[in-house]
Specification:
alpha/beta, 8-stranded antiparallel sheet, 529 residues, 2 domains, 23% strand, 19 strands, 8-stranded mixed sheet, binds flavin-adenine dinucleotide, FAD/NAD(P)-binding domain
Length: 529
Amino acid sequence: MHQDARYMDNDSVIDGDICIIGAGAAGISIALEWDNLPYKVILLEGGGLEYDDRVQELFRGKTTGQRYYPLKSSRLHFFGGTTGHWGGLCSIFEPSAFEKRDWISESGWPFPATELGPYYQRAHKRLELGEYSFEVDHWIGKNASLTPLPLNKEVFYNKIWRYCVPEAMKFGKKFRDNIIRSKNIQLFTYANVVNLETSDNAQKITEATIRNYAGKTHRVRAKYFVLACCAIQNSRILLSSTKQVTTGLGNENDLVGRYFMENIEIKSAELWLKEPDALQLYMRNAPNFKAELALTLQKQQELKILNGMLSFDPLDLARKIPPFIKSWTEEDPRENRKKMEKIYSNAGESRLSKMLHSNKHSSFEITMRLEQAPNSLSRITLDDIEKDELGMPRANLNWVFTSLEKKSARTLYNLLGRQMGIAGIGRVKIEEILLDETNSTMPSTTSGGWHHMGTTRMSDDPKKGVVNSDGRLHNIYNLYVAGSSCFPNGAAVNPTFSIVALSLRLSDHLKKTMQSETILDVVRVQAKR
Ligand SMILES: Cc1cc2nc3c(=O)[nH]c(=O)nc-3n(C[C@H](O)[C@H](O)[C@H](O)COP(=O)(O)OP(=O)(O)OC[C@H]3O[C@@H](n4cnc5c(N)ncnc54)[C@H](O)[C@@H]3O)c2cc1C
């Protein structure tokens, strides 16, 4: 069922068992798990079924610190969320990302990598990624012409990436009918959550307030609430729900909004080969996979640096494509998308040609995707003055790094240069600013991957995290958070595959919780008889 909240009677009350706030990768993944179950699921989406600039405008905000994309255009605010714009590149997080690494402050997850294993398998199916394997030997075994670079395996290994096929990428298109036709899922569009109301003791969410630009306000009541609006909006909603707790919900320890992280993308080195090569394993291959070079945990530990991955693009092509931070500059996300498509088509590159090109080249641009160290100063705050059209304080981002990021980028490129030299393959040329140890400025190519992580980080210690290892707020028993805002650290891996996996895990947890409540209810009724 679908209802547009702009056309409902003002001050309507909506009741359900579970209320999922946000219909993007996380929210839709959870909702679909409840289809055809004997529970009433309310799915609240702030935008409509299609793009609406007046709703998108609610995401506008200021940025300080490291140069970032306009906040308005770094997420999409309508049904399907930012899956309307994502690139579909997927891989699993390294087991090392889950471990406490003593050279990275506040690293580690409250559970090991194995916990996500079965959920990755399910997420893989949902994203239609094909055959499940992240082992390089598996893919090389299928195509003898793919050869890994002969580098020291104690330093670099080959990490496999999969590409989501275009038909499976846009959740808003792919799952629209499933959601709308569902008998027990009720989708409300133009249902922007502007406040979460709690009981007097602030231990339970009693209702969510939704509002839209048609001037309608409604209330939603449910047993459980799941916040799935991505990192910036999740923290914005918690911080601005101040009626019962003046510092914001879950913010007793001043953690909400902090530890904002990105996958840092740097294009500041070139690989010059002795003999031209296609580096085919590292290009997009059929059926939709490629490899990147990744740093071993042993080497990270020895050098005390962050994790990073390296990918290669033919230099003649790469020189025609500016770093994302220099092209994704418009407030309107559609304009940025158009600009990117134009850049790629002017460069003579299409999705298909990239997938299939196998020409040999002498030189390649080396793109680094670096993990960001957890940093409490890198954060989302609410604007003191400016509010959006619905009366919510705007979100501001201060994106800042520790001293580890630049050191890690320099060391990683240097290490690749040394290994290429030892193997007699070629040389690596690194941008001057990166080599200068006295200069803390990052290279001008430094971008984010539009991967918003942190802000409601997960920890079993309430002093160190906003949510526990189930994704539940420590002090509010019926409020959960889904998505990458819960990541305590973000690895050097694009997040969406892990967002879907973690969302399925949360959904299973909620099912168990609801089922055990039902059993308890039955027991109570029988005891009364
Ligand atoms: C250009 C681009 C390329 C990308 N490429 C990749 C990639 O290759 N690989 C990868 O892993 N990731 C990629 N990403 C990131 C990916 O899009 C996100 O990780 C993913 O969409 C996050 O899912 P989510 O459900 O947490 O948030 P979203 O998909 O953003 O969904 C959040 C939903 O919540 C809704 N919402 C927000 N606020 C409210 C509110 N107050 N009330 C009600 N609803 C609300 C929004 O409208 C939206 O529908 C890319 C992103 C961009 C922009």
